[in-house]
Automatic annotation (TrEMBL):
Recorded superkingdom: Bacteria
Taxonomic lineage of the native organism: Bacteria, Bacillati, Actinomycetota, Actinomycetes, Propionibacteriales
Keyword annotations: Hydrolase, Magnesium
Similarity comment text for this entry: Belongs to the Nudix hydrolase family.
Native source species: uncultured Nocardioidaceae bacterium
Protein name: ATP/GTP-binding protein
Stretches assigned to the Nudix hydrolase domain: 137-267
GO molecular function: hydrolase activity
Protease among keywords: no
Pfam families according to UniProt: NUDIX
Requisite cofactors: Mg(2+)
Signal peptide range in chain numbering: none
PANTHER family in the cross-refs: GDP-MANNOSE MANNOSYL HYDROLASE
InterPro entries attached to this UniProt entry: Nudix_hydrolase (IPR020476), NUDIX_hydrolase-like_dom_sf (IPR015797), NUDIX_hydrolase_CS (IPR020084), NUDIX_hydrolase_dom (IPR000086)
C-alpha cells in the first residue's frame, strides 16, 4: 500500500452502530454516519491528504445535513487532538467543541465535537461566531472577599478540602458577574450578606498543582467587629472554621500567593489594578 493510502487507512475509524449512510467525499475517501443512540449519530471520515489535495469539508458537511434531513437531532464526532485538519473540517461542517476525552498512556486525548439540528448553519454569522466561541480558551474566574477587623486582621476560612486557609469566596458561575459572585459565595459559605463590594485588585494566578491558571477578583467587604464571627453560619461541607489573622498568621496558614497578596494589601490598602501571584508587576 502506498504511503498516502496507508496514512488514510490508519486515520479511518468507523464507529460502532447502525449504518445510516456511507459515501465518499471529493477525494474519494469514505465518510460514514452511524446511529449510536436514539436521535444521535456519530460521523467519521479520513484526514485531508498531506499532498494538499481536496479538503474533506464539503463531503463531511453534506453528510451532516443528510443526517438532519433524516430526522436525527445530534451528530457528533471524536477526533484526536493532534489531527488539526480534521478538527478544522468538523468546524467547517458546524460541529462545535464540547470537551476533551482523556486518553491513556498509549493514546492521544480526543476532542468531542457535535452539532445539533437546531444550531445555525456554519456559513451564517451566528453559526460562525458559535463555532469560534466553542473553540476559544476558557479561564477560571474567582471572586474573593476581604473582610478586616478594626485591628487590621483579615478573616480567613479554614477549609475542609485543603490544608491552606483562604479568603471567603469562590468560582464565579457562567454568566455571573464577579461582583455578584463574591456576594453569593460569601453568603453561601459563611452566611454573611454584603452590600456594594469594592474592587481592590485583579490577581492572576499561574497554574498550581491540579489547578489551571485563573483570574481572581478581590473585593473589599469592609471593616467588621470581631464578634461578627459569632453570628456566621458556616457551610459545613467546605468551611471548618473562620479565623481573624494577622500578617504572621496569614503567612503560617495561607498559600504563598495568598500571603503575598495580603502582605501587599496591608502595605497598600488602596490596592493595585493588577497583580500576578499576589505581586505587583506594574512597575519597571
Amino acid at each position: 500500500m502506498a504511503g498516502t493510502d496507508a496514512q488514510a487507512a490508519a486515520a479511518w475509524h468507523e464507529p460502532v452502530g447502525e449504518l445510516l449512510s456511507r459515501g465518499v467525499d471529493e477525494r474519494g475517501a469514505p465518510v460514514s454516519v452511524r446511529r449510536v443512540r436514539p436521535g444521535v449519530a456519530e460521523l467519521s471520515w479520513t484526514s485531508s491528504p498531506p499532498d494538499g489535495g481536496a479538503p474533506a469539508s464539503p463531503g463531511v458537511r453534506a453528510a451532516v445535513e443528510q443526517a438532519f434531513a433524516g430526522g436525527l437531532v445530534r451528530v457528533e464526532s471524536r477526533v484526536p487532538v493532534t489531527e488539526l485538519d480534521r478538527v478544522r473540517t468538523a468546524a467547517r461542517a458546524g460541529l462545535r467543541r464540547e470537551g476533551v476525552l482523556r486518553g491513556g498512556a498509549d493514546s492521544h486525548d480526543t476532542l468531542l465535537l457535535a452539532r445539533l439540528a437546531g444550531d445555525p448553519a456554519p456559513d451564517t454569522r451566528d453559526g460562525f461566531m458559535a463555532m469560534l466561541n466553542a473553540g476559544l480558551p476558557t479561564k477560571r474566574v474567582i471572586s474573593h472577599g476581604l473582610l478586616r477587623d478594626p485591628a487590621g486582621r483579615v478573616l480567613l476560612c479554614e477549609l475542609t478540602y485543603k490544608p491552606e486557609w483562604d479568603l471567603p469566596g469562590g468560582v464565579v458561575e457562567p454568566g455571573e458577574s464577579p461582583r455578584e459572585g463574591v456576594r453569593r459565595e460569601v453568603r453561601e459559605e459563611i452566611g454573611l450578606d454584603v452590600e456594594s463590594p469594592r474592587l481592590v485588585t485583579v490577581n492572576w494566578l499561574p497554574s498550581w498543582r491540579s489547578w489551571d491558571d485563573a483570574c481572581v477578583f478581590v473585593f473589599d467587604l469592609g471593616v467588621h467587629d470581631p464578634t461578627v464571627t459569632d453570628r456566621l453560619t458556616l457551610q459545613p461541607t467546605e468551611i471548618a472554621a473562620v479565623h481573624w489573622c494577622d500578617v504572621a498568621e496569614v503567612a503560617r496558614h495561607a498559600a504563598a500567593a495568598t500571603a503575598r497578596l495580603l502582605a501587599y494589601l496591608a502595605e497598600l490598602p488602596a490596592g493595585s489594578p493588577y497583580l500576578e501571584g499576589g505581586a505587583d508587576v506594574t512597575g519597571p
